[in-house]
Specification:
It is built from ten helices and 15 strands. The radius of gyration is 20 Å and the shape is globular. The strands form three sheets. A seven-stranded mixed sheet has the order 11-10-9-12-13-14-15, sandwiched between helices. 46% of the residues are buried. It is of the alpha/beta class and 364 residues long. β9 (207-211), α7 (217-227) and β10 (230-238) form a beta-alpha-beta unit. The N and C termini lie far apart (43 Å). The protein has helices at 12-19, 55-65, 105-121, 150-161, 190-199, 201-204, 217-227, 269-280, 299-303, 336-347; strands at residues 2-6, 46-50, 72-76, 82-86, 94-98, 126-131, 165-169, 184-187, 207-211, 230-238, 244-250, 257-265, 285-293, 310-314, 330-333.
């Protein structure tokens, strides 16, 4: 059997080292969203643990909060079963579990549920599930007969397992918050993107924000206003899970740098077809940006083509070596500070809404 150990005996030192490596990008610079004088209890109430899919991100979060990552282990047996063991006292603690339910989706969901059960049985005062990426989010409605609403099913299971609160980033549809019968804090990663694109704004010259589908128009409009660009919209029609056809382009992209922003890039069918369309209409270059780099199936092969100049994603999903084919055009931003600010505010019973002030909202 194999074991994955989460946690570090060096406490915040390991988090600080992680903060200086690999990824870039944070909330807009300036004062911390935590109130002046706020003290986080290093050895008291707050504990943060990480699942196997979010260890590096959790270290970045802990580095921002200046605390050590909690010690835990996830052991996988030869038959595929797993067991989670928390290796420190959590009785009466305010516990946050960071775990993205990305590929392998079902394994990560089971690890999350086991984590929650373990913490509740260890008498944690409150368990907050931090899901940078929420799997099954696209199955959020019945679009034909005899199909499930699996996003609601997963929300029910997480609630039944004993979670007290959920913290997520850029859910595929905002109404998924209502699937949970418990408090949900829904963050937007747009402040992280806005800071990055403002830092290279001169390179972008004449900019046009293009929404690859009508559901993301609100976010694209908000980013266009913050970055000083124009807005265009593409309507699409999905033929299958991996095949998309684009229709009309509303707006002018001729001679402009096109920035397309969405909540996720999965098979890259939507963004690549949209890139072809705007290039045919005279766009100078195309930058594809998304919060979640799911990148499955033919995604990497499609994104490696010349129609897209740059791909910008965050570290809500670990990318690893699989992105080697697009490494030359890939930029990975970090949401560690964003999550750290939110966790600090939740722990200290402060408002989380202040984090939305410099964002462009979330997808409808």
């Amino acid at each position: 059997m194999t074991a994955t150990i989460s946690g570090s005996s060096s406490g915040s030192t390991s988090g600080a080292a992680a903060a200086n490596a690999g990824t870039t990008g944070n909330l807009p610079s300036g004062q911390s969203a935590l109130q002046p004088g706020t003290k986080l209890t290093l050895n008291g109430d707050l504990r943060i643990f990480a699942g196997r899919s979010a260890r590096h991100l959790a270290e970045r979060v802990c580095s921002h909060l200046k605390i050590g990552l909690g010690h835990s282990s996830t052991i996988e047996f030869p038959d595929g079963e797993i067991i989670v063991k928390v290796e420190e006292d959590v009785r009466g603690r305010d516990v946050f579990v960071i775990l993205s339910t990305c590929q392998p989706v079902n394994d990560n969901i089971m690890e999350l549920l086991t984590f929650i059960d373990c913490l509740k049985r260890a008498s944690a005062h409150r368990v907050t599930v931090v899901m940078p990426y929420f799997g099954y989010a696209r199955q959020d409605r019945k679009d034909e007969g005899r199909v499930p609403i699996t996003a609601k099913l997963v929300a029910n299971i997480i609630t039944a397992a004993g979670a007290d609160r959920v913290l997520a980033i850029d859910l595929h549809a905002a109404q998924i918050q209502g699937f949970f019968d418990l408090p949900v804090d829904h963050l937007s990663a747009t402040p992280v993107f806005v800071e990055y694109f403002q830092s290279i704004r001169k390179e972008l010259s004449d900019l046009c924000l293009v929404s690859p589908d009508v559901g993301n128009v609100k976010v694209a409009e908000g980013m266009a206003n913050m970055l000083g660009g124009e807005l265009a919209i593409i309507n699409k029609r999905r033929l299958s899970g991996s095949t998309v056809t684009t229709g009309n382009l509303i707006g002018n992209v001729e001679g402009k740098t096109v920035l397309m922003f969405d909540d996720m890039i999965s098979t890259a069918g939507t963004v690549v077809e949209a890139a072809k369309l705007v290039m045919e209409r005279g766009a100078k270059q195309v930058i594809a940006a998304a919060t979640h780099g799911v990148l499955v199936g033919p995604a990497l092969e499609r994104l490696a083509k010349d129609s897209i100049t740059k791909v910008v994603v965050t570290n809500t999903i670990p990318l690893g070596d699989r992105v080697a084919p697009i490494k030359h055009k890939l930029v990975e931003l970090c949401v560690g500070k964003l999550l750290g600010e939110a966790i600090g505010r939740i722990h200290n019973n402060q408002s989380v809404s202040a984090l939305f002030n410099k964002g462009a909202g979330t997808k409808r």
